[in-house]
Each structure stands twice: as structure tokens, then as C-alpha cells.
Amino acid sequence: MSTSSDALTHSHVFLGSDHRRNERRIWLVIALTTVMMVVEIGAGTLYGSMALVADGWHMSTHASPC
Predict the structure, then answer these.
(1) pLDDT tens digits, 49-59
(2) Taxonomically, which superkingdom (predicted)?
């Protein structure tokens, strides 16, 4: 049984047609999360709320792109 090498190849481009739009949306979510993180840490520090400070630092793990 012989097979053509063309039948075994495929494209490695996995970016969809809306890739740029989706990337902008992801960066918007990261920015919103970062803003809320700063607000929570600031308010938690100002009002002495360990829960807000802890949640703000927890949000930093979601806001980091890595």
C-alpha cells in the first residue's frame, strides 16, 4: 500500500478568522481584572480588610498573562 506524502501533511496555522478581535477582548479582561485587583488591595489596606487584600492578591494570579 503506497501513500502520498501530501495526504499526511496538514496546516499548523491555528489562528481563527477572529483572532485579533478575540485577542483584544482577552487584553480587555486582563486590564479589568488588574484594575479590580488594585482597587481591592487598596480598599482592603485602607479599611483593614484582610479578605479584600487576600482576594486582590488572588486576582493577581488571574491577571498575570503568564
Answers:
(1) 999 999 999 99
(2) Bacteria
